[in-house]
Amino acid sequence: MDPRETALQQAYDHAVRWLASLSDRRVPARASVDEIVSALGAELPDAPSMPADVVDLLATACEPGLTAFPSGRFYGFVVGGSEPAALAADWLVSAWDQNAVMSAVSPAYTAVEDIASAWLLDLLGLPGESAVGFTTGATMANFTCLAAGRDAVLRRAGWDVARDGLAGGPAVRVVAGVNRHMAIDLALRYLGLGQPELVAADDQGRIEPAALRSTLATGATPPTIVILQAGDIHSGAFDPFIESIRAAHEAGAWVHIDGAFGLWAAVSPAYAHLTTGCAEADSWATDAHKTLNVPYDCGLAIVRDAFALRAAMGLHGDYLILHERGDPSDKVPELSRRGRAFTVWAALRSLGRSGVADLVERLCRHASAFAAGIAAMDGATVLNDVVFTQVCAEFGSDERTDRVLARLLDDGTAWISGSTWRGRRVVRISVSNWSTTDDDVRRALAAIRRAAVDI
Ligand SMILES: *Cc1c(COP(=O)(O)O)cnc(C)c1O
Fold it and tell me: Which domain of life is it from (predicted)?
């Protein structure tokens, strides 16, 4: 048999076993890094091994050190699972091994990226003329959008940053809410824009439009970027887009929205009001590997002015075969990369319009069930208005909250991370996995109750 076939069969068997274990498996990993290193062996062998044996060793040795991220009871950070069609499509992406760089070379990839892009703009309620770049995640999607914005505001000020660099040019002013995600600061750092000027937010983390307006009114009107947020990682709150975008545009600013998980509220009639006004912005970053539940890694950089995105990211080299319709690589920082749009297409094609809305509504319904269940526990308080998929709660004092978290991880039924929000330690729950069921929520709430009892 072809060694690829036996290796793939081995991988298939292990993958199916792993997926079947999720419903009852402890969520945290059982083994440490050192234990996995010794199970794998640290020495590079001198001689080749059979591919199927290598896959078997990898899967067997790593299994105890795997965290059940795709479990319906993983609620840490903001982490999606993998929709079945997207997971299977991702295997094909590896087997096909298309380089998603040039239209002329992989017509199938370009076709799928074009269809998926149009579906995404439609579902998210964003302008149909926008360009969509498929990045590694929301950090790089924010980077990509902000690069387009930086170059565009400098171009309007008569400065060609692509040719002349940043040094000697006009300073770019970047304004963001105090509760922006740290990925924004990373992207700004990569872009040579330094730290943003911060604007006050309300008790749910929403930027204050009046404070934004007065910040923008001070000083002259340099090239400016305003960064808003759809979905705060603690409260799930959405910035007030209509007033904020109006204030920013009156000041001549480029408006970017980080909607890594929250932009997806737009697909549900029940939650779309949270994103009202969003479509007036100039660029939007979101993830497909969070709310949409495609496998890592996949983020989406969406820019209304397709020219601005191509000007920032496009490359023209003599050995490339440039296509008059544009190329996938015009919209992202990388050249060679895997065919990320295949998995997005598969998730969207499999769910359909109503399935994507159901997915979002289910995540929100589970978050509300968590909030109600925790609020009913003695000594527990839900701190945020649960408007979307995020819940923050505390158990009387920072110290008690941390003890509940430690016990929860020991218990292993669910994985829930702690954080500090509004100066207090919190238990922070993010419901982001398509496979979470009512029963998963019940089991996780029972684990929280066990952890909180006699603390
Ligand atoms: C997760 C997240 C990011 C970073 O996304 P990655 O996909 O991890 O790079 C940025 N902003 C917000 C609001 C997020 O939730």
Answer: Bacteria
